[in-house]
Amino acid sequence: MDQLTLLNDRIISRVNVNLNEFDFDTEPFVNNTLDYEKMLKFYAFYGITSQHPIYFQFRHSNLAGSYFLGKCLVSRSAIYKSDIRGDELKRMGDNIRCAKNIPLVEDEMITIKDSLLYKTLVHSNSHNLENPEEFSIRNTISAHYTNIHGSTLEGCFLGPFATIDLMNLHSCIVGEFSYVQVGEPFHRKIDPGTIWIRNPNFEFKYQFEKSILDNFVGVNSFHQPRGSIYDFVKEREQDYENLFDVMNIEPIVSAPTSAVNRYAVVKGKTSIGENVLVSQRAFLENAIMGDGSNAQENTYIINSVLGGLNITAHGGKIIHARMGRETFVGFNSFLNGKPDAVIEIGQGCIVMPHTIIDPRVSIKIPDKHLVWGFISSEEDMAANTISLDDLAEVRDSLRIGSMTFSGKGSIFIEVFKKRINNILLSNGARFYKGEKRGHAQDGQNISFNIIQPYQTGKHMGLYPSIRIEP
Amino acid sequence: MDQLTLLNDRIISRVNVNLNEFDFDTEPFVNNTLDYEKMLKFYAFYGITSQHPIYFQFRHSNLAGSYFLGKCLVSRSAIYKSDIRGDELKRMGDNIRCAKNIPLVEDEMITIKDSLLYKTLVHSNSHNLENPEEFSIRNTISAHYTNIHGSTLEGCFLGPFATIDLMNLHSCIVGEFSYVQVGEPFHRKIDPGTIWIRNPNFEFKYQFEKSILDNFVGVNSFHQPRGSIYDFVKEREQDYENLFDVMNIEPIVSAPTSAVNRYAVVKGKTSIGENVLVSQRAFLENAIMGDGSNAQENTYIINSVLGGLNITAHGGKIIHARMGRETFVGFNSFLNGKPDAVIEIGQGCIVMPHTIIDPRVSIKIPDKHLVWGFISSEEDMAANTISLDDLAEVRDSLRIGSMTFSGKGSIFIEVFKKRINNILLSNGARFYKGEKRGHAQDGQNISFNIIQPYQTGKHMGLYPSIRIEP
To answer: How high is the ipTM of this complex?
Structure first.
């Protein structure tokens, strides 16, 4: 285990250097998270498909239980039960959006060095214009169920259930259950439960009350997660482990235009429509997936109906709910309906990332509404929703409950709708007669190669150096 | 499938060039053997252990269902359900046995190019002194259950159940169920059922009668195997496939000094003693494996007792038999006892490779005997066995039944015993208090990495280029 211990220690010291000013020590997190026995036992896997350029290089790393797709280099890192999904990486010749169009000189690659990613999702492509060929994560630790979406990182610590979206972070700490999309923070500390989008055109901000958030997601003194959302996912862990035990799994019956990843859990009376994408580590139980809907990594759709063209972004959880057509549910949202407290959300709604709906009685959100924050009853709706029509009228600023907005509401809606449409397109939700292919079509017929570490000797716990090319 | 078809065609044309003089066309064999659907479906795997230097490189190849251990390069080849076992390769610094000792300048590597190996075992290390760092197989086709043992090949066709042992073959055809160990044959055709050992000190030869051999192993006009030995192995294929469906198999309980490969079938009341090696694709059913015994690749030990320090060489089959201590069973031997026709073989016997014992009533072979050829009754024993003491007396030549021997019997026995002892040593059969480790000890704690081919696109059926280093 010498090499694994060395790896461990190097990651701690690297990240600590960056976070020195915050007096933040990553050692308690790392030492209480990494379980060497599981790092020896769990296999990693990478996908081979003819639809994406492939290149994998793994060296001096442990990759226990992780999934890799696309082009990826991992060096001196521990990637534990994480999904490194490179099927949206930019390709050679693609133009980056800059004052002047600059074509990429080679395919973009995810590179992860001297980092620990724990049950983390890495997806999309780097929105860092300075280095468009490299989606880079260095000297960084991310905790349980973090989403690293289109963001480059150097020297950061991301708390459990945090999401960083389309950013470039340097020496930052992002608190648990925070969602941030705020450009290029440099030596910043983001409080837990901060939902914050800022760009030249508008700013959206919501802050969870600590007393409420603590019930759902909190951390102990070792930065380990606790709370009911963590309990919810932990209770379902065994279902995933079963998937890993079987080599050739009976494929889930779905339309020929849909893809259900073999590492997704599908239980109960679940039906899959056309153009549906169910990603690895999605969890469906008694779920009706309408045409063009999707369930991304770490999503849970239980006893619920998705009307069609629904996006359930990474980590979204939809329980005892009926979702109208073209309704979007953002990252890590927790729609915790119950048999006697059903959540009904109308058509064309936008549920902001990291929204928590935990109703005591059934609630209904009308069509075309923006939803955010925390809703436990009908009364909370006024302070946590607005109709998109009303929002479009906002010219300057708006404050509702703990939410503040500044900028033009119409631009905010436009940007969001454009993004939703792009997600639907890239997921293949609008595939028709061979046109508009996306992940739902390309995610079929993936071969998975399985890799494991040395079980004994000086490299014990590390994976051999592996290089895969087309 | 374009690339796979191309691969197919290239192998046919390459081998045909070498075998042109024999008017031998490999096309019917290849086209009737390769099943593209299975080549897409079956996964290959390679072993990672701290006990052997590892290096794997695979390119432009299909590896369906094959197993790799040690250092190996495969290029432009189809390796179907084969075992390429490089745990006895020579290492850098080892001296090759020549007039003058020459140390190897690098670790030996198995290299397989432009070849089709079908359910073949490749094992040991090259005994070709000219190129000691490369255990090379080029432009070669080997058929079902062939053993390539310590032999280099260029431009050859090996029929089903053939064994080539410690040789260097160039442009040869070896008939089905032939065992040859005859130095460096060049443009030779070996008839089916030829058992032939020749070296500067002695020569042993036995020829199966065609009418008898045909019942056990024959080939049809496409060189595909038939006969009762083939039926026997075919009937048990499903048991292996079950092993491939499960990822983490419950380890077979055995002594801490023994290794039971997770790709071995173990059924019924089987017990595993100390220092026992059970290799991948061995099949044990109601087998008592005495201390220091082994079951190598493609062996079957059913309703039988091995007294201890028994070697069952690759492909040996022992059914309803009781084997005395230190008794050796050679490659592909078929000891086909029945409940009412038990085979008992005494201590210290040598059952020559490719021996068939198919008794109608119980038979008993005394201690310290050499056994060869075909035995179906007590009467056959006189023509197919000799006591080692009597053989040791032979100074010049001997003919018994269809067997001819020339040379000194004592040297023949000495060479054989030395080899048996080396096999026991390398298998760890004599491990004691940390000394004399071998495969039975080193074969524990292997990690298996699983690799699969492209399922679609122009590379469909081919594996990506993969390189693994420590």
So the answer is: 0.86
